[in-house]
Each structure stands twice: as structure tokens, then as C-alpha cells.
């Protein structure tokens, strides 16, 4: 079992930056790959980025490549999503999730993630 909680969302103008944080239960953090997903208004939840257990592997959805960076701090048991050059279409509820089953890889499949946070809202104005 792991508890995750997101923070760092807010309102930003197009072209701006935000850094999302996801604090996880420290005792089990090393055993989980971590991912970020998002749900735009009126749409399904989709994949953003993921990072493997020790941070050796990262994957991104195409729209995030070159703009988003996922990282993790094992000491702080926290995962970050740095988002730069934000666009209005990035507006969404962003979720952090923990994945035990993928082992040492990082997964972009929603069904691989067992534990989810409540989400943090990101709104990008044009």
C-alpha cells in the first residue's frame, strides 16, 4: 500500500511553467515506478510521463516531449513533473500514480497503476 498526494497545480499563462509534486509514503517509495496522468475537461484520463523505481528509465507522451520532465527524489520520497512552455490544451486535472507490477521499467498503461492521488488542477490561459 502506498499513499500519494499531488500539489503544485494552479493557473498560469500560456508559455509559463509549473512544477507538480507528488509526495509518497516514504517506506515503500523505492519499490514503485511512478507516473503522471491527466484528464482534460470532458475527456478520458491519459498518460503524461512515468519514471522507473530508481529513475533510470523515463517515458513521455508525445505532447510532453521537450516540454515536460519527470524526476524523483528518493530521499524525499517525491516525484516531480516540471512543465514548461505550457499551452491551453495542457489544462487538466493531473494525477500521480504508483505502479508496483512493472518492476524496473516505467509503464504508460493506466491499468498498471495500483494507487492514485486525488489530482491537482492545472489551468493554462491563452
Q: What structural class is derived from the secondary structure elements?
A: mainly beta
Shape: globular
How many strand elements? 11
Unreliable runs:
none
Q: How many angstroms separate the termini? A: 40 Å
Strand content: over 45%
Radius of gyration, CA atoms, in whole angstroms: 13 Å
Query: What's the average pLDDT?
Result: 94
Order of helices and strands: EEEEEEEEEEE
* Tally of helical segments: 0
Largest sheet: 7 strands, mixed
Q: Report helical residue fraction.
A: under 10%
Q: How would you sum up this structure, described in words?
A:
There is one protein chain. The chain is mainly β. The protein is built from no helices and 11 strands. Strands 2, 4, 5, 6, 9, 10 and 11 form a 7-stranded mixed beta sheet that branches. A 4-stranded antiparallel beta sheet has the order 1-3-8-7, with no helix packed on it. A hairpin with a 6-residue loop joins β5 and β6.
List its traits.
mainly beta, single chain, 7-stranded mixed β-sheet, 0% helix
Write the topology of this structure.
Blueprint: E1 4-7, E2 10-13, E3 18-24, E4 33-39, E5 46-51, E6 58-60, E7 68-73, E8 78-83, E9 92-99, E10 115-116, E11 120-125
Amino acid at each position: 500500500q502506498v499513499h500519494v498526494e499531488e500539489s503544485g497545480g494552479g493557473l498560469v499563462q500560456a508559455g509559463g511553467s509549473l512544477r507538480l509534486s507528488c509526495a509518497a509514503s516514504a517506506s515503500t517509495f523505492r519499490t514503485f515506478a511512478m507516473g503522471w496522468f491527466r484528464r482534460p475537461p470532458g475527456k478520458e484520463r491519459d498518460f503524461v510521463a512515468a519514471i522507473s523505481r530508481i529513475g533510470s528509465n523515463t517515458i513521455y507522451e508525445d505532447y510532453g516531449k521537450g516540454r515536460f520532465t519527470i524526476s524523483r527524489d528518493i530521499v524525499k520520497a517525491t516525484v516531480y513533473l516540471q512543465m514548461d512552455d505550457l499551452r491551453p490544451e495542457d489544462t487538466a486535472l493531473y494525477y500521480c500514480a504508483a505502479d508496483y507490477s512493472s518492476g524496473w521499467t516505467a509503464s504508460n498503461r493506466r491499468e498498471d497503476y495500483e494507487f492514485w492521488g486525488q489530482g491537482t488542477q492545472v489551468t493554462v490561459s491563452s
